[in-house]
Amino acid sequence: MLISEIETKHILTHSKLPGLGYSINPYVGCQHACVYCYARFMKRFTNHDEPWGQFVDVKVNGTKVFDKDILKVKSGDGAFIASVTDAYQPAEAQYQLTRSLLERIVNIPPELLLDGFAISILTKSDLVLRDLDLLKRLTKISVGFSIAMTNETACQLFEPRCSPIQKRLDALKTLRDAGIKTYAFISPILPGVTDLSSIFEALEGIVEYVCGETLNMRCGNLTDVLSAVSLFNEELPPEFNQNIRSRSYWKSVEREFYRLAQKHDIPVNNFFHHISSEHVY
Ligand code: SF4
What we know:
The protein is an alpha/beta fold and about 280 residues long. It has helices at about 60-70, 90-95, 95-105, 130-135, 150-160, 165-175, 195-205, 220-230, 240-245, 245-265, and strands at about 1-5, 10-15, 20-25, 25-30, 55-60, 80, 120-125, 140-145, 180-190, 210-215, 270.
């Protein structure tokens, strides 16, 4: 694992996420090395030859830059942490860059942002609990965990360096018990691996809402995903390859998603589709 320290020009970057004008990515690259990672396209913007998951650049001047970037933010804005990395990957235990940024956010003077600065964190690591003291001091905060499966063997195959699923579920409960708004991002939905029914069952009572997302096959991950899926599930139906490229298949997954959400009384905030004409048969 190559860990490098870099300087960045900006730490708040514009984002189109609803209700949040900015993203904060304290790192480039991600040690979590998920097989399906959509963010691997970021490698294009680095000088790295290592495979995705084998390098991480730490934006060591992130907090200094934040102090300048925050001056351009308008009332009502917020930030998503993080869109193309995991802000609580193992490097964070040492560098505490995400924690330092949260400290800055907690201490934004009220005269600068009258309505506060909304923060939404999405992670796959229970290291986020380390920062519970700061999270409790934020007025507009939500913390979510990505969960694509409940089977720990599958988790080892697809997300080898993330917190085990049970730890993510336990962390959601701890956050919720502490009064933090919690959510789950059921993503990516992996046919033959994701068991929506068991995920919704596990989430009951510990999240305020869920979002869903189909498998994103547009980022050069398909070969790796398909080989991991067949390693996990040797009895894939013959129509599997056709299904993952079929709009009607993903529509039926979405219907099942909403049906289970209703059954477990968990509101759905959003459901993202990634199927594109190049994939449709
Ligand atoms: S945690 Fe997120 S950013 Fe990191 S490798 Fe996994 S999918 Fe990619």
